[in-house]
Specification:
By secondary structure, the chain is mainly α. It has 14 helices and 7 strands. The chain has a 3-stranded mixed beta sheet with strand order 3-4-5, sandwiched between helices. A two-stranded antiparallel sheet has the order 1-2. A hairpin with a 2-residue loop joins strand 6 and strand 7. The relative contact order is 0.07.
Protein backbone atom coordinates (compact mmCIF):
# COMPACT_ATOMS: atom_id res chain seq x y z
CA UNK A 1 0.00 0.00 0.00
CA UNK A 2 2.83 2.42 0.84
CA UNK A 3 5.83 1.22 -1.19
CA UNK A 4 6.30 -0.82 -4.36
CA UNK A 5 9.37 -2.79 -5.41
CA UNK A 6 10.56 -1.83 -8.90
CA UNK A 7 12.99 -3.83 -11.01
CA UNK A 8 14.23 -2.82 -14.48
CA UNK A 9 15.89 -5.40 -16.75
CA UNK A 10 17.40 -5.11 -20.21
CA UNK A 11 16.77 -7.26 -23.28
CA UNK A 12 19.02 -10.09 -22.07
CA UNK A 13 17.57 -10.13 -18.55
CA UNK A 14 20.34 -8.23 -16.76
CA UNK A 15 19.12 -6.09 -13.86
CA UNK A 16 19.60 -2.41 -14.67
CA UNK A 17 18.00 -0.81 -11.64
CA UNK A 18 16.12 -1.74 -8.45
CA UNK A 19 14.41 0.43 -5.86
CA UNK A 20 11.58 0.86 -3.40
CA UNK A 21 9.25 3.55 -4.73
CA UNK A 22 6.14 5.16 -3.29
CA UNK A 23 2.99 3.41 -4.56
CA UNK A 24 1.87 6.38 -6.61
CA UNK A 25 1.89 6.82 -10.42
CA UNK A 26 3.77 10.12 -10.23
CA UNK A 27 6.53 8.65 -8.04
CA UNK A 28 7.01 5.64 -10.31
CA UNK A 29 7.05 7.80 -13.46
CA UNK A 30 9.60 10.14 -11.87
CA UNK A 31 11.87 7.20 -10.95
CA UNK A 32 11.72 5.68 -14.45
CA UNK A 33 12.40 8.98 -16.21
CA UNK A 34 15.43 9.69 -14.02
CA UNK A 35 17.01 6.48 -15.33
CA UNK A 36 17.26 8.01 -18.81
CA UNK A 37 16.33 4.70 -20.45
CA UNK A 38 13.82 3.82 -23.14
CA UNK A 39 11.20 1.80 -21.25
CA UNK A 40 9.62 -0.82 -23.49
CA UNK A 41 6.86 -2.02 -21.17
CA UNK A 42 5.77 -1.90 -17.52
CA UNK A 43 4.15 -4.89 -15.83
CA UNK A 44 1.95 -4.73 -12.73
CA UNK A 45 0.63 -7.70 -10.82
CA UNK A 46 -3.15 -7.34 -10.55
CA UNK A 47 -4.12 -6.11 -7.09
CA UNK A 48 -6.03 -3.46 -5.11
CA UNK A 49 -4.04 -0.48 -6.48
CA UNK A 50 -3.15 -1.93 -9.88
CA UNK A 51 -5.96 -0.34 -11.91
CA UNK A 52 -5.22 3.10 -10.46
CA UNK A 53 -1.49 2.69 -11.12
CA UNK A 54 -2.21 1.31 -14.60
CA UNK A 55 -4.31 4.37 -15.49
CA UNK A 56 -1.67 6.79 -14.17
CA UNK A 57 1.28 5.11 -15.90
CA UNK A 58 -0.63 4.81 -19.18
CA UNK A 59 -1.54 8.48 -19.01
CA UNK A 60 2.14 9.19 -18.42
CA UNK A 61 3.00 7.69 -21.80
CA UNK A 62 4.17 4.20 -20.77
CA UNK A 63 2.88 0.94 -22.22
CA UNK A 64 1.51 -0.80 -19.12
CA UNK A 65 -0.01 -4.25 -18.70
CA UNK A 66 -1.66 -6.05 -15.79
CA UNK A 67 -0.47 -9.60 -15.14
CA UNK A 68 -2.80 -12.40 -14.07
CA UNK A 69 -2.16 -13.03 -10.36
CA UNK A 70 -2.55 -16.82 -10.55
CA UNK A 71 -0.03 -17.07 -13.39
CA UNK A 72 2.49 -14.88 -11.55
CA UNK A 73 2.13 -16.97 -8.39
CA UNK A 74 2.61 -20.22 -10.31
CA UNK A 75 5.66 -18.89 -12.16
CA UNK A 76 7.33 -17.63 -8.99
CA UNK A 77 6.39 -20.59 -6.79
CA UNK A 78 9.86 -22.19 -7.24
CA UNK A 79 11.50 -19.44 -5.17
CA UNK A 80 12.50 -20.75 -1.74
CA UNK A 81 12.73 -17.21 -0.34
CA UNK A 82 9.85 -14.89 -1.15
CA UNK A 83 10.29 -11.15 -0.82
CA UNK A 84 8.84 -8.16 -2.65
CA UNK A 85 12.26 -7.54 -4.21
CA UNK A 86 12.43 -11.08 -5.61
CA UNK A 87 8.83 -10.85 -6.82
CA UNK A 88 9.68 -7.68 -8.76
CA UNK A 89 12.65 -9.45 -10.34
CA UNK A 90 10.50 -12.40 -11.32
CA UNK A 91 7.76 -10.21 -12.77
CA UNK A 92 10.34 -8.28 -14.81
CA UNK A 93 11.67 -11.53 -16.29
CA UNK A 94 8.16 -12.79 -17.04
CA UNK A 95 7.45 -9.52 -18.83
CA UNK A 96 10.69 -9.74 -20.83
CA UNK A 97 10.02 -13.31 -22.01
CA UNK A 98 6.30 -12.84 -22.57
CA UNK A 99 5.35 -15.62 -20.13
CA UNK A 100 2.26 -13.93 -18.82
CA UNK A 101 -1.42 -13.41 -19.57
CA UNK A 102 -2.59 -9.79 -19.57
CA UNK A 103 -5.64 -8.84 -17.51
CA UNK A 104 -8.20 -6.43 -18.92
CA UNK A 105 -8.23 -3.11 -17.08
CA UNK A 106 -11.79 -1.88 -16.72
CA UNK A 107 -12.78 1.56 -17.96
CA UNK A 108 -13.31 4.27 -15.31
CA UNK A 109 -17.08 4.13 -15.89
CA UNK A 110 -17.22 0.38 -15.26
CA UNK A 111 -15.05 0.77 -12.16
CA UNK A 112 -17.46 3.34 -10.74
CA UNK A 113 -20.52 1.17 -11.42
CA UNK A 114 -18.75 -1.85 -9.94
CA UNK A 115 -18.02 0.16 -6.79
CA UNK A 116 -21.74 0.99 -6.57
CA UNK A 117 -22.66 -2.70 -6.91
CA UNK A 118 -20.14 -3.75 -4.26
CA UNK A 119 -21.40 -1.11 -1.81
CA UNK A 120 -25.00 -2.12 -2.47
CA UNK A 121 -24.17 -5.77 -1.86
CA UNK A 122 -22.37 -4.97 1.39
CA UNK A 123 -25.31 -2.99 2.77
CA UNK A 124 -27.74 -5.74 1.79
CA UNK A 125 -25.56 -8.33 3.51
CA UNK A 126 -25.41 -6.30 6.73
CA UNK A 127 -29.16 -5.71 6.60
CA UNK A 128 -29.81 -9.44 6.39
CA UNK A 129 -27.30 -10.11 9.18
CA UNK A 130 -29.18 -7.75 11.50
CA UNK A 131 -32.52 -9.39 10.67
CA UNK A 132 -31.14 -12.89 11.25
CA UNK A 133 -29.60 -11.74 14.55
CA UNK A 134 -32.95 -10.40 15.74
CA UNK A 135 -34.61 -13.69 14.84
CA UNK A 136 -31.90 -15.63 16.69
CA UNK A 137 -32.14 -13.52 19.86
CA UNK A 138 -35.92 -13.87 20.04
CA UNK A 139 -35.76 -17.59 19.28
CA UNK A 140 -33.71 -18.10 22.44
CA UNK A 141 -36.76 -16.97 24.44
CA UNK A 142 -39.18 -19.11 22.49
CA UNK A 143 -40.43 -16.17 20.43
CA UNK A 144 -40.71 -17.27 16.80
CA UNK A 145 -40.90 -14.65 14.07
CA UNK A 146 -42.38 -16.93 11.43
CA UNK A 147 -42.82 -15.80 7.85
CA UNK A 148 -43.16 -12.01 7.66
CA UNK A 149 -42.80 -9.47 4.88
CA UNK A 150 -39.99 -6.92 4.95
CA UNK A 151 -42.45 -4.12 5.68
CA UNK A 152 -44.09 -6.09 8.51
CA UNK A 153 -40.82 -7.19 10.13
CA UNK A 154 -40.55 -4.32 12.62
CA UNK A 155 -44.17 -4.57 13.78
CA UNK A 156 -43.77 -8.31 14.35
CA UNK A 157 -40.63 -7.80 16.46
CA UNK A 158 -42.32 -5.19 18.64
CA UNK A 159 -45.33 -7.46 19.07
CA UNK A 160 -43.16 -10.33 20.33
CA UNK A 161 -41.08 -8.14 22.67
CA UNK A 162 -44.04 -6.35 24.24
CA UNK A 163 -43.95 -6.51 28.06
CA UNK A 164 -40.29 -7.62 28.32
CA UNK A 165 -38.16 -4.58 29.17
CA UNK A 166 -34.75 -6.06 28.29
CA UNK A 167 -35.91 -7.47 24.96
CA UNK A 168 -37.63 -4.19 24.12
CA UNK A 169 -34.37 -2.32 24.73
CA UNK A 170 -32.38 -4.74 22.56
CA UNK A 171 -34.98 -4.74 19.81
CA UNK A 172 -35.16 -0.94 19.77
CA UNK A 173 -31.42 -0.63 19.12
CA UNK A 174 -31.31 -3.34 16.46
CA UNK A 175 -34.42 -2.09 14.69
CA UNK A 176 -32.89 1.40 14.54
CA UNK A 177 -29.76 -0.08 12.93
CA UNK A 178 -31.93 -2.07 10.53
CA UNK A 179 -33.90 1.02 9.53
CA UNK A 180 -30.69 2.97 8.80
CA UNK A 181 -29.24 0.14 6.72
CA UNK A 182 -32.49 -0.30 4.83
CA UNK A 183 -32.67 3.41 4.04
CA UNK A 184 -29.11 3.62 2.70
CA UNK A 185 -29.46 0.34 0.79
CA UNK A 186 -32.59 1.70 -0.84
CA UNK A 187 -30.65 4.75 -2.05
CA UNK A 188 -27.97 2.66 -3.73
CA UNK A 189 -30.51 0.24 -5.18
CA UNK A 190 -32.46 3.10 -6.76
CA UNK A 191 -29.21 4.55 -8.12
CA UNK A 192 -28.45 1.19 -9.74
CA UNK A 193 -31.94 1.01 -11.29
CA UNK A 194 -31.56 4.55 -12.63
CA UNK A 195 -28.29 3.59 -14.34
CA UNK A 196 -29.93 0.58 -15.96
CA UNK A 197 -32.88 2.63 -17.23
CA UNK A 198 -30.49 5.03 -18.97
CA UNK A 199 -28.31 2.29 -20.47
CA UNK A 200 -29.46 0.98 -23.84
CA UNK A 201 -27.22 -2.10 -23.66
CA UNK A 202 -28.61 -3.15 -20.26
CA UNK A 203 -32.19 -2.73 -21.50
CA UNK A 204 -31.39 -4.95 -24.48
CA UNK A 205 -29.79 -7.62 -22.29
CA UNK A 206 -32.89 -7.61 -20.09
CA UNK A 207 -34.92 -8.98 -23.00
CA UNK A 208 -33.38 -12.39 -22.21
CA UNK A 209 -35.27 -14.61 -19.75
CA UNK A 210 -34.08 -14.46 -16.14
CA UNK A 211 -32.03 -11.31 -16.75
CA UNK A 212 -33.10 -8.38 -14.59
CA UNK A 213 -31.46 -5.02 -13.90
CA UNK A 214 -28.86 -6.42 -11.47
CA UNK A 215 -27.80 -9.27 -13.77
CA UNK A 216 -27.65 -6.99 -16.81
CA UNK A 217 -25.48 -4.28 -15.26
CA UNK A 218 -23.25 -6.81 -13.47
CA UNK A 219 -22.59 -8.66 -16.72
CA UNK A 220 -21.99 -5.42 -18.63
CA UNK A 221 -19.42 -4.09 -16.14
CA UNK A 222 -17.69 -7.46 -15.92
CA UNK A 223 -17.17 -7.73 -19.69
CA UNK A 224 -16.71 -3.94 -20.11
CA UNK A 225 -15.48 -4.21 -23.70
CA UNK A 226 -17.19 -7.03 -25.67
CA UNK A 227 -14.72 -6.72 -28.54
CA UNK A 228 -11.91 -8.05 -26.33
CA UNK A 229 -13.55 -11.50 -26.49
CA UNK A 230 -13.08 -12.85 -30.01
CA UNK A 231 -15.51 -15.76 -29.64
CA UNK A 232 -18.66 -15.61 -27.53
CA UNK A 233 -18.19 -19.19 -26.33
CA UNK A 234 -15.08 -18.03 -24.44
CA UNK A 235 -17.28 -16.09 -21.98
CA UNK A 236 -17.89 -19.24 -19.94
CA UNK A 237 -14.16 -19.84 -19.40
CA UNK A 238 -13.54 -16.15 -18.69
CA UNK A 239 -16.12 -16.16 -15.87
CA UNK A 240 -15.10 -19.53 -14.42
CA UNK A 241 -18.12 -21.53 -15.61
CA UNK A 242 -16.15 -24.27 -17.41
CA UNK A 243 -14.90 -27.53 -15.78
CA UNK A 244 -11.43 -27.95 -14.37
CA UNK A 245 -9.19 -30.42 -16.18
CA UNK A 246 -6.17 -32.36 -14.89
CA UNK A 247 -4.47 -34.87 -17.15
CA UNK A 248 -1.08 -36.48 -16.55
CA UNK A 249 -0.10 -39.93 -17.77
CA UNK A 250 -2.80 -42.38 -16.76
CA UNK A 251 -4.62 -39.74 -14.70
CA UNK A 252 -7.43 -37.83 -16.37
CA UNK A 253 -9.73 -35.96 -14.04
CA UNK A 254 -12.54 -33.56 -15.00
CA UNK A 255 -13.62 -31.62 -11.94
CA UNK A 256 -16.11 -28.91 -11.07
CA UNK A 257 -16.15 -25.44 -12.55
CA UNK A 258 -12.92 -23.46 -12.29
CA UNK A 259 -14.48 -20.49 -10.42
CA UNK A 260 -11.88 -18.11 -11.86
CA UNK A 261 -12.66 -14.63 -13.10
CA UNK A 262 -15.39 -12.28 -11.96
CA UNK A 263 -17.30 -13.83 -9.03
CA UNK A 264 -20.14 -11.28 -9.13
CA UNK A 265 -20.85 -11.94 -12.81
CA UNK A 266 -20.66 -15.71 -12.30
CA UNK A 267 -23.12 -15.53 -9.40
CA UNK A 268 -25.47 -13.25 -11.35
CA UNK A 269 -25.57 -15.62 -14.34
CA UNK A 270 -26.20 -18.60 -12.04
CA UNK A 271 -29.12 -16.79 -10.38
CA UNK A 272 -30.49 -15.91 -13.83
CA UNK A 273 -30.25 -19.57 -14.88
CA UNK A 274 -32.06 -20.61 -11.72
CA UNK A 275 -34.82 -18.11 -12.52
CA UNK A 276 -35.15 -19.48 -16.06
CA UNK A 277 -35.63 -23.05 -14.82
CA UNK A 278 -37.83 -22.32 -11.81
CA UNK A 279 -39.65 -18.98 -12.17
CA UNK A 280 -39.86 -17.85 -15.81
CA UNK A 281 -43.25 -19.02 -17.11
CA UNK A 282 -42.84 -18.02 -20.76
CA UNK A 283 -41.36 -20.94 -22.65
CA UNK A 284 -38.30 -20.65 -24.90
CA UNK A 285 -35.77 -22.83 -26.67
CA UNK A 286 -33.26 -21.84 -23.98
CA UNK A 287 -35.49 -23.17 -21.21
CA UNK A 288 -36.14 -26.38 -23.16
CA UNK A 289 -32.39 -26.87 -23.53
CA UNK A 290 -31.87 -26.35 -19.78
CA UNK A 291 -34.65 -28.79 -18.89
CA UNK A 292 -33.16 -31.43 -21.18
CA UNK A 293 -29.78 -31.04 -19.46
CA UNK A 294 -31.49 -31.31 -16.05
CA UNK A 295 -33.08 -34.62 -17.05
CA UNK A 296 -29.74 -36.04 -18.15
CA UNK A 297 -27.30 -34.58 -15.61
CA UNK A 298 -29.33 -33.18 -12.71
CA UNK A 299 -30.58 -29.74 -11.75
CA UNK A 300 -27.31 -28.35 -10.32
CA UNK A 301 -25.30 -29.15 -13.44
CA UNK A 302 -28.13 -27.84 -15.59
CA UNK A 303 -28.05 -24.47 -13.82
CA UNK A 304 -24.29 -24.13 -14.34
CA UNK A 305 -24.58 -25.16 -18.00
CA UNK A 306 -27.48 -22.77 -18.52
CA UNK A 307 -25.54 -19.94 -16.84
CA UNK A 308 -22.65 -20.56 -19.22
CA UNK A 309 -24.96 -20.63 -22.24
CA UNK A 310 -26.75 -17.50 -21.06
CA UNK A 311 -23.42 -15.67 -20.82
CA UNK A 312 -22.62 -16.65 -24.41
CA UNK A 313 -26.05 -15.47 -25.60
CA UNK A 314 -25.77 -12.13 -23.78
CA UNK A 315 -22.37 -11.46 -25.31
CA UNK A 316 -23.67 -12.31 -28.78
CA UNK A 317 -26.68 -10.02 -28.28
CA UNK A 318 -24.34 -7.23 -27.21
CA UNK A 319 -22.06 -7.67 -30.22
CA UNK A 320 -24.88 -7.92 -32.78
CA UNK A 321 -27.07 -5.26 -31.19
CA UNK A 322 -30.12 -7.56 -31.12
CA UNK A 323 -32.71 -8.61 -28.55
CA UNK A 324 -33.31 -12.14 -27.29
CA UNK A 325 -34.92 -14.52 -29.80
CA UNK A 326 -37.59 -16.49 -28.01
CA UNK A 327 -38.14 -18.94 -30.88
CA UNK A 328 -35.84 -20.54 -33.43
CA UNK A 329 -38.00 -19.14 -36.22
CA UNK A 330 -37.13 -15.60 -35.09
CA UNK A 331 -33.45 -16.26 -35.85
CA UNK A 332 -34.32 -16.85 -39.49
CA UNK A 333 -35.81 -13.37 -39.90
CA UNK A 334 -33.39 -10.98 -41.69
CA UNK A 335 -31.69 -8.32 -39.56
CA UNK A 336 -33.44 -5.52 -41.50
CA UNK A 337 -36.85 -7.05 -40.80
CA UNK A 338 -36.07 -7.29 -37.06
CA UNK A 339 -35.08 -3.67 -36.99
Amino acid sequence: MELSSVCVVDVVGKIVAEAKVESHPAAIINFLRKLGLSIERIGLEAGPLSQWLHAGLTKGGFETVLLETRHVKAALSAMTVKTDRRDARGIAQLLRMGWFRPVHCKSPGSQEVRALLVARKQLLGKLLDVEFSIRGILRGFGLKMGVVTRSGFEARVRELCAGQAMLEQIAEAMLAARAALRKEYSKLHKAMLALVRRDEICRRLMSAPGVGPLVAITFKTAIDDPARIRKSKAVGALLGLTPRKYQSGETDVTGGVSCVGDEMARTALYEAANAVLSRVTRFSALKRWGMDVAKRRGTKRAKVALARKLGVILHRMWMEGTSFRWTKEASKVPQVARA
